[in-house]
């Protein structure tokens, strides 16, 4: 009989113990920075946060009258990176989020004739740094950067997709 009473007591207290542990651990987003480089080594997301996946964004034309499919209509890799990150920033803003809420970024770069087929990582970093090496952004995302053969438009050099987190309400 004593065993049954202890077992019932354990079963009754288990949800309380688990609930308290979950509530304490789930509300934060923990980031481990990479020293000397503007990305996070890792990002840990608590269970009560909302995760938002943004589809890949590509550059828009510099001028509406610019011809389609030519590099000059979209700019170089740095200009395209800035253009795409501004779009991401605007989309996040519409959702009540900022670039600080981005936890993961995947970057797809194309090497064109102007770079002899090699992605312009320096140009990308010049644009990226305008968003992630400032006082405005204190939380760095985990990030992967890939060179791909082509994007849908032959003049695009950059596509970026991000995952953001909406912190749980406390």
TrEMBL record:
Stated name of the protein: Endoribonuclease L-PSP
UniProt record similarity statement: Belongs to the RutC family.
SUPFAM superfamilies: YjgF-like
GO cellular component: cytosol
Gene3D superfamilies with a match to the protein in the record: RutC-like
Pfam families the record matches: Ribonuc_L-PSP
Entry-linked CDD domains: YjgF_YER057c_UK114_like_3 (cd06151)
Entries under PANTHER family matching the protein: 2-IMINOBUTANOATE/2-IMINOPROPANOATE DEAMINASE RIDA, ENDORIBONUCLEASE
Source organism, top-level taxon: Bacteria
Signal peptide: 1-25
Entry-linked InterPro entries: RidA_CS, RutC-like_sf, YjgF/YER057c/UK114
Protein keywords: Signal
GO molecular function: deaminase activity
